[in-house]
């Protein structure tokens, strides 16, 4: 496989991951927007936030998820969106782990406000695998971009651009 | 390049957070079933609350338990509200008279059944208090249905009027 082919595949995979992660957040955010009161109940059950902040958090978080998802799909403000995505996932995982350690028998409140979905190892593993994917996205957005050309693919250190640079001096 | 990206990130994060907050608060203001921005979930004075907080139940699960006859509903609102309309099969135990009336009500609660307390309004002060009270009486499976009467009606679930359950 030539380097260019490999880069194309890599580019497509990163796009796919971006869209998939975006879809997951939008899919998770909309039910919470529809039923904010129940979601606030789920947040309350986690017993992590001060009571005065529970409703504000329950109102804003679902929209943050949806808006970050939309930005990821549109490819707008990617660096900011990807950082927030990672930050949110890390806090979700932390909340899930803390609740498991405390032995709280509560609903996840992750993808719906349906309280039949509790927290178990599977829930934490699911979020952890999402974090892996979003860390990969972070890598693509930050590390790759720094070393990339304007097309957003890997550096084309071809002879074609070097003479220009030299000519500019 | 790195500097540029970091600089972009630095302004993008607060802007995204701000936009989300504005959209969320704006949407919450215009929707019919708006949630109060700040509400005291724990109305009990510190120290009198049971060590375990009472879990909150969602309307979907409450409806499922209702259909399967696996739960009994306790109405925490004043009796006049109960008579105007209540969840079908619910018992009335107004929070204000809980201590006087609880024994009559407790007798009617079958063993090993889930108890769901409800009132009205998203800050649901009464149902939470009543749920804690029932926990203190020794009931183990007690849940609070936040904004219960309103969400129950919104889901078109069975109701009854008058002073019979």
The CATH topology of the largest domain in chain B, please? Oxidized Rhodanese, domain 1
Total domain count of chain B: 2
What radius of gyration of chain A results from the CA coordinates? 20 Å
Radius of gyration of chain B: 20 Å
Low-confidence stretches of chain B: 43-51
Shape of chain A: elongated
Number of strands of chain B: 7
Report how far apart the termini of chain B are. 70 Å
The DSSP helix count of chain A reads 6
The computed structural class of chain B is alpha/beta
Detail the poorly predicted runs of chain A.
149-169
Count of DSSP H/I helices of chain B: 6
CATH architecture of the largest domain in chain B: 3-Layer(aba) Sandwich
Portion in strands of chain A: under 5%
What form of chain B results from the Cα inertia axes? Answer: elongated
Largest interface: A-B, 42 and 41 residues
Number of domains of chain A: 1
Major sheet: arrangement of strands of chain B? 1-6-5-2-4
Q: How helix-rich are the residues of chain B, as a percent range?
A: 40-55%
Largest sheet of chain B: 5 strands, parallel
The SS-based structural class of chain A is mainly alpha
């Amino acid at each position: 496989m030539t380097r260019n082919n490999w880069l194309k595949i890599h580019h497509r995979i990163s796009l796919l991951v971006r869209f998939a992660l975006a879809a997951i957040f939008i899919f998770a955010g909309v039910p919470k927007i529809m039923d904010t009161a129940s979601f606030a109940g789920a947040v309350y059950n986690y017993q992590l936030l001060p009571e005065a902040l529970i409703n504000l958090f329950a109102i804003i978080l679902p929209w943050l998820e949806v808006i970050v998802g939309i930005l990821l799909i549109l490819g707008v403000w990617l660096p900011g969106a990807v950082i927030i995505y990672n930050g949110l996932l890390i806090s979700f995982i932390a909340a899930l782990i803390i609740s498991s350690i405390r032995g709280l028998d509560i609903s996840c409140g992750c993808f719906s406000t349906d309280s039949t979905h509790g927290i178990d190892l599977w829930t934490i593993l699911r979020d952890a695998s999402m974090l892996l994917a979003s860390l990969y996205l972070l890598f693509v957005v930050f590390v790759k971009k720094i070393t990339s050309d304007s097309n957003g693919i890997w550096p084309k250190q071809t002879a074609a651009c070097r003479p220009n640079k030299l000519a500019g001096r | 390049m790195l500097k540029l990206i970091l600089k972009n990130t630095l302004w993008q994060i607060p802007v995204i957070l701000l936009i989300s907050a504005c959209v969320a608060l704006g949407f919450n203001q215009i929707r019919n079933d708006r949630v109060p921005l700040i509400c005291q979930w724990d109305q009990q004075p510190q120290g009198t609350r049971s060590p375990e907080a009472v879990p909150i139940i969602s309307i979907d699960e409450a409806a499922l338990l209702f259909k399967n006859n696996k739960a009994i509903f306790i109405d925490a609102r004043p009796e006049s509200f109960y008579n105007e309309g209540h969840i079908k099969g619910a018992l009335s135990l107004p929070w204000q008279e809980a201590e006087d009336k609880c024994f009559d009500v407790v007798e009617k609660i079958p063993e090993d059944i889930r108890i769901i307390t409800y009132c009205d309004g998203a800050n649901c002060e009464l149902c939470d208090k009543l749920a804690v009270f029932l926990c203190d009486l020794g009931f183990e499976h007690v849940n609070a249905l936040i904004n219960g009467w309103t969400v129950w009606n919104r889901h078109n679930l069975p109701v009854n009027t008058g002073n019979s359950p």
